[in-house]
Design a protein that fits this description.
Two copies of one chain form a homodimer. The radius of gyration of chain A is 26 Å and the shape is elongated. By secondary structure, chain A is of the alpha/beta class. In chain A, the strands form four sheets. The first copy, chain A, has a six-stranded parallel β-sheet. The mean pLDDT of chain A is about 95. Helix content of chain A is about 35%, strand content about 15%. In chain A, helix 4 crosses helix 5 and helix 5 runs parallel beside helix 6. The longest helix of chain A is centred in the N-terminal third of the chain and has 17 residues. The first copy, chain A, folds into two domains: about 160 residues, TIM Barrel, CATH 3.20.20.70; about 140 residues, nicotinate phosphoribosyltransferase. The relative contact order of chain A is 0.10. At the A-B interface, helix 1 and helix 3 of A face helix 1 and helix 3 of B.
């Protein structure tokens, strides 16, 4: 999967942030050349439709591109007609081969990608280009890619832009900044609370940390606890429903999720390299159960409160509702 | 309407771009202090929940804020309970008044904003603060604001963030870069075309410009024409349906929509000030008919092709489909 989102991101930082996040999350490369230069992310892409439109004649356009990029020539075939485009790509592939190079591949960007990719694969194989890759793009997302796979599409790489960098189906992450605790004049932590009529919007008090539990290498649950108090029990209380009894999962390994990089505005640890972050993301994702990973009706992954945070929250909520503040 | 979107935008340029666009589009101010400083946009806002959470006691928090901002004191009242918060705001408003200042207003950020605003207005009026403004926020958009107005909400200003800066219901603008025409080796324009199975995605050829027609001060239609050829008739062909007969609207005024600011990479005109852009946006919006402006089932505003562009497009499509290229 290649990240192709530059034109849909908000400005330069939005685009660099999206390329960086996509690469950490598993994208193989980006079409954002600046992200390649500044962040060291591999860069991949093809030419634009305007390259073919400028030449007018598709075969002439492909020849000019093959001249410019003989070692990395992926041709966008759908400016006029995708099947004609594949024929022109094969013709240019033969010319490249005669000069000692190989056609890297073609890109399909419209129409029935399942059907066209099967047809293009057949044409490329018959013409002696079994190693030419087929790249597909055009408003792809996980659902469309899933459907293409189901329909036997012969696609080697997916270019995903709009629906990756804009978070199309969830355009804003509902994260907010509230306060968990603050130090009083004597330097002691004082817990804070924000009430809401929606239980999910009531904050969790304390200087919070998160412990992740695993069993036989699979993620089991995350427990939010107060780092000033420590984990009081490997048990989780439901965040929204205080009446639900605590749940004590079986586990054989526990690790900290929060790592301090900045303290009181000072860096206290070097940032991880992109590759370290990328490997960690892949490892954690592989440890998530297939039930929690599926697209449709995934099983919610358990995240809950440590018993101390749970009871402290109830105390603070009751006190704030009574209009007084316990310390 | 105040733009409150900083925390939902993609990075600094995303946020500055959103604040700038919101102000041009009619927002009265932004909560983005950097946009205020760099772009001269008026800045408005209140304190965060964390201000109250830090103090713990809401009355103490409001007093501290009134001390810091006596001349611009708008208090966020929903950290614990909105009605209690209004009472605390009134108490602090009385203290401010005793010191020669006035309570600017309150902000409601959760719960039933229609009901709470009516109740808060009554409380503020009865307490002698008829000029204190009520600001509302919490995932507002045009639909929610419309509903609040319908339900008699007594809200003076709306803080809109997430659903403004992310374009929540349309997270990506489907704009693309294609080529209309290019100069050949003799300096003459050569029209280009991109085919598609979806008629709306077939490009319009030529060095395009747009003429906007008005009648009695109301917008009538926009005609896309070839600036190298000029407007051949004040008539529009449907962009997607070539068989539909051209439509010649009545009009008494015509103006150019495209203005050249850059030519071959060189600035040829100074950018407009934000205020000029903002006034133009307001004027053009006011000239759009109420039928085209309504939220639900608006009448599509007519945009079509000049007869020359229309017939040139048909020629180029036919030629490209036949696999040859006419020049």
């Amino acid at each position: 999967m290649l990240e192709f989102g530059l034109r849909r991101a908000q400005g330069i930082d939005g685009a660099l942030g999206a390329s960086r996040a996509a690469y950490i999350g598993g994208a193989a490369a980006t079409s954002n050349v600046l992200a390649g230069r500044l962040l060291g992310i591999p860069v991949r892409g093809t030419h634009a439709h305007s390259w073919v439109m400028f030449h007018g004649d598709e075969l002439a356009a492909f020849r000019a591109y093959a001249e410019a990029m003989p070692g990395n020539c992926t041709l966008l075939v759908d400016t006029y007609d995708s099947i004609d485009g594949v024929r022109h790509a094969i013709a240019v592939g033969r010319e490249l081969r005669a000069r000692g190079h190989d056609l890297a591949g073609i890109r399909l960007d419209s129409g029935d990608l399942a059907h066209l990719s099967i047809e293009a694969r057949r044409m490329l194989d018959e013409a002696g280009f079994p190693d030419a890759k087929i790249v597909a793009s055009n408003d792809l997302d996980e659902t469309v890619i899933g459907s293409l796979l189901e329909h036997g599409a012969r696609i080697d790489a997916y270019g995903v832009g709009t629906r990756l960098v804009t978070g199309y189906d969830q355009p804003a992450l509902g994260g907010v900044y509230k306060l968990g605790a603050s130090r009083d004049e004597h330097g002691s932590w004082r817990d804070a609370i924000k009430l809401s009529e929606q239980p999910t919007k009531i904050t969790n008090p304390g200087t919070l940390a998160v412990r992740r539990l695993r069993k036989a290498g699979e993620l089991v649950a995350d427990i939010i606890y107060d780092s000033d108090v420590g984990l009081t029990a490997p048990a989780l209380h439901d965040i929204e429903d205080p009446f639900r009894p605590a749940y004590a999962p079986e586990f054989d390994e526990a690790s900290e999720l929060l790592v301090t990089y900045l303290r009181v505005g000072q860096p206290v640890r070097d940032p991880d390299s992109l590759d370290v972050a990328r490997e960690r993301a892949a490892r954690e994702l592989a440890q998530l159960s297939p039930r929690a990973r599926r697209f449709l009706n995934p099983q919610p992954y358990p995240v809950g409160l440590d018993p101390h945070v749970h009871s402290r929250k109830q105390e603070l909520v009751a006190a704030a509702r009574a209009g007084s503040r316990p310390d």
